[in-house]
Amino acid sequence: MIIDRYIDIPKQKGVEFWDIQRISYIRRLSSTGKGNLTLERTSSLRVLDRVNFKLIKKGRGSNTARKILGKELSAPIYLGDMSFGALSGVPNMVIAEAADRTNTLAGTGEGGLNPAVSKHSNILVQWASARFGVSIETLTKGIGIVIKIGQGAKPGIGGHLPGSKVTEPISLTRRIPKGLDAISPAPHHDIYSIEDLGQRIESLKEATGKPVLVKVAATNYIPYVVSGIARMGADGVIIDGHGAGTGATPVIVRDNVGIPVEMAVAAADRALRREGRRDGFLIVAGGRVGDALDAAKLMALGADIVNLGTSVLIAMGCVMVHKCHIGSCPTALTNKIDGSREIDFNFALGKINNFIRGFIEELSEIVGGVGLSSIDQLVGRRDLLKGSSLTRDTLNVLGVEGIPEDSDPVMRNWESSDVISHLHELASKGVPTIVSMGSNAPPDVQPPRRITDWLRIDGAQVTRPSIDPYREQIDTRIKLLGGTLEFSAPMGIDLRGSPRAIREAMEWAALATNIPVLVEDVNPGYEEISISSEVNGAGLWERSPREGKYWMINNISKGLEIVENNRIAGLILEEFEEPVEVMTSELDTYLKRLGVRDRYDIMVTAESLRDVGDVMKLVGLGAEVVFLPWKIMELALGDGGRTNLFEKSFNLIAASKREISLLAGAAGVYNVYNSIIGNRELLRNINLNSEISRRLRVKVAGSL
């Protein structure tokens, strides 16, 4: 079947960044090739949408040409890094051809070099951790080389092409066995420091005579990372922000790791200028660049070029069904190569060419509209921007004017379709959920539901290498009661009030996987995995195990008083009067200041906690154990009834433990107990209320 027209956009179940409005805009641009600039933004949670130009006058165009890597381009546009295999072949060829015809740049991705792509002149060839299909012959094609360290959709995790998509053409190009998963190592095994990276940069330049860029994900230490890359002699950096698209990624990593590209670019640009290393060093910015206004604002924040990825796929017909990894794409863009479905080359090429031309026309109008004669003059012009509904810390990172404004976090119902789908897959399959394309997670797409939604976990790269959770053993064990009681992971299940069937199944699964459960009374045979409690006055609960006593509290002031006046093993914090995130952080901080943190255990429970992302963020704030509510099992069951409850309970817990390994590995941590508990440096916030940020002691994204 040949796809030679746009298919209808299906109804979207939940909140999407690439919603019907954005897809329709790109389709109009791709069908007409004519700009239709609109400066209005609907209500948006994204930081970039809360930054705008102070004044734009419509109707005046300007020069968009820029000299990049020694080549005069029509506009600073990079069609970025989608591999042969993730895409189905024809789209790879179309992107390379479009870059030549529109005089822009294109990346090849890590899937080797398709012979039909290698003949094009405006490509940059990628050198990634698995070195799929890499040879001196492929490296000398095009105008430059990209060393891929990380990507925005899965910082700290290597590429993943499911075996069902590794057909014969992919096998030959990547030089890997047909039908087997192609999982790239998380780190390059010859790059474990910034000095190692410098050696690779120099060797590739020496071998090919080509300029070398380094691609990284936008993560906590991005100013240090970019500064190091510049010091090591690279010609530039590609910064891929949170929310960027990909063909396959664990949902738990996609939705919880990395920071927005706008904050990363602003921080990196300012760091390079401060060190006198900005001139001659390129910054390429990608991740949710949907239109020319996004691109112009990123350039004003410090980018030299913008990376268009998902928007290019939408121009060719993508309808955002998030199933690229399955290999049965309805638009034939990401399906497996087996001859059953293919996109028409001329149709796709015409749409991309139109999209780029219309994009450039709108970009020209924006540059002229802010009073500049050339797009070169736009780079780093923060003075042209203003921010609104942003905190003081966020404005400082961006370096733009604006009246600081703190929004009060509002607790919302968390039973979204994305959450339920994720839980259902965990319980059904027993392995971490794999998804495709960009994240729709809070706080920048879906509305935040609790404070953890404003927090992001670090992704390790270069300055702290990631650890490969697919190939290396990560220790997720947690010790309580001074090390005398050990569990397999920092999570548990709160079974208080649960139906008998779910309770029995989850108690059995908890015993089998060695995680704790919180119950009203001790269940014979489960004593070692149970934390029992009895009512003992208003808001206070207590339990006396063999080795010590735990108090359950819902008020931090009372908790501090108990610690001072009682010999106890620790506290169980239950959400009631204030969020458990704040209670956890303040108790952890208080005990550290007293110098007695190692004497007490901190455990947390709240009905609105939902997955391992919440667990790991609360562990970063200071908790040893986080109890998820039993209702996650009820949601995971969906309409499937309560058959196979024991199997599904086991699957849910086992898969969640595996997700903990994924997050720890992505953050560069081998041992959760020793390296994550109370380690706030692994966390950053995105435009979180300043007072809450101060109480958590978590810095804003982009700050050092």
Can you offer a commentary on this structure?
With 704 residues, this protein is of the alpha/beta class. It folds into 2 domains: 2-34 and 56-375, TIM Barrel, CATH 3.20.20.70; 450-696, TIM Barrel, CATH 3.20.20. It contains 22 helices and 32 strands. A 9-stranded mixed sheet has the order 25-24-23-31-30-29-28-27-26. The protein has an 8-stranded parallel beta barrel with strand order 5-6-7-8-11-12-14-15, surrounded by 6 helices. α7 (222-231) packs across α9, α14 (417-429) crosses α19 (631-637) and α14 packs across α20. Mean pLDDT is 90; it is low at 522-547.
What's the structural blueprint in terms of helices and strands?
Blueprint: E1 2-3, H1 20-32, E2 51-53, E3 66-68, E4 71-73, E5 77-79, H2 90-102, E6 105-107, H3 115-118, E7 123-127, H4 136-139, E8 144-148, E9 160-161, H5 168-174, E10 182-183, H6 194-208, E11 212-217, H7 222-231, E12 236-240, E13 249-250, H8 251-254, H9 261-275, E14 282-286, H10 292-301, E15 305-308, H11 310-316, E16 342-343, H12 345-369, E17 385-387, H13 392-398, E18 401-402, H14 417-429, E19 434-435, E20 455-457, E21 478-480, E22 485-487, E23 491-494, H15 500-513, E24 517-519, E25 530-532, E26 534-535, E27 541-543, E28 550-553, H16 556-565, E29 570-574, H17 580-594, E30 601-605, H18 612-621, E31 625-629, H19 631-637, H20 645-666, H21 672-675, E32 683-685, H22 690-696
Parallel strand pairs: 1-16, 5-6, 5-15, 6-7, 7-8, 8-11, 11-12, 12-14, 14-15, 17-18, 23-24, 23-31, 24-25, 28-29, 29-30, 30-31
Antiparallel strand pairs: 2-17, 3-4, 9-10, 13-19, 20-32, 21-22, 26-27, 27-28
